[in-house]
# Entry
Amino acid sequence: AQKITQTQPGMFVQEKEAVTLDCTYDTSDPSYGLFWYKQPSSGEMIFLIYQGSYDQQNATEGRYSLNFQKARKSANLVISASQLGDSAMYFCAMREPQWGGSYIPTFGRGTSLIVHP
Amino acid sequence: DAGVIQSPRHEVTEMGQEVTLRCKPISGHDYLFWYRQTMMRGLELLIYFNNNVPIDDSGMPEDRFSAKMPNASFSTLKIQPSEPRDSAVYFCASRTGTSGGAPYNEQFFGPGTRLTVL
# Structure
């Protein structure tokens, strides 16, 4: 079974509007973390935001916020006031503990976001 | 810090040739990961090291793939012999092992090596 599901292969949004990228996850461990990464056309992977399973409040980083709904096992990324430079692939990832105590992330298939003027 | 360094950035080779990809993790990071990214399969974890020791290589596709980490500042991923289906972008990433480092233990990715096997 997929541990991380990103159901939107592609999204379009108009500049200055907000957009939500969906991510659902599957784990039975109470301790886990969720990440979002951005991959622009240049190829590098850029860390955006993190949400821990025990965090009481939704994470925010500038224009990025994470809509964390634990009961639904969803961790959607919200980008406010989209900019042309936000056009990129976005990956959701989850880390959960492995044997030995290390945390290894699993990545979703990604969502391609295109921001048009 | 210079970030995770990978070389070469681009590699074009012919089927059957040996390919070696190199990675220098961020100093002080004790986890190192090798990923492969393709359109068909997305981002796949190939292998990861903790303190230079390979911990899980279950993602390595075949015996043609091997990875080493002789010291804390260098790792290689070797494909021998290479095949056209190995064409992909290979990422190296590193992170700390405790929350005393990067706040969330997020992985820091290198720029990737784009491999094309003809």
